[in-house]
Amino acid sequence: MEAVWIAVLWLLFAATHMALSSQRLRPRLVARLRDRALQGLYSLVALAIFVPLVSIYYAHKHSGPYLWTLSMLPGVRPVGYAVMGAAFALVVPGFGPP
After folding, report:
1. How far is it, in rounded angstroms, from Cα 68 to Cα 56?
2. CA-CA distance, 73 to 65, in Å (whole number)?
3. Residue range 60-97, pLDDT digits in tens
4. Which end of the chain is more exposed for a tag (fewer CB within 10 A), N or C?
5. What is the pTM of this model?
6. Which of 53, 41, 43 is CA-nearest to residue 12?
7. Rounded CA gap, 46 and 24, in Å?
8. Comparing C-alpha atoms, which of 1, 2, 17 is closest to residue 50?
């Protein structure tokens, strides 16, 4: 059950980050709250989700082999290598000059 909570909190963390920084919502929030207050709200929302996420993860980090048993499934390891290769190919040019 803790894996479900971890997944839900990660999704909520990502959703609130995308929503609060979206091009539709952010200008309205800045107009209403001003920039510094919005940064404070953004930080409070992030902390309100991230602290329980880390707490639940830390309390249950040795509860089961969820992630590590995936590599035993057929085809998962080559897909993982391909995804990491693509990520590497995208990250390395990001450090270069524009």
Report:
1. 19
2. 13
3. 877 776 656 777 789 988 998 999 999 999 999 888 88
4. C
5. 0.65
6. 53
7. 19
8. 17
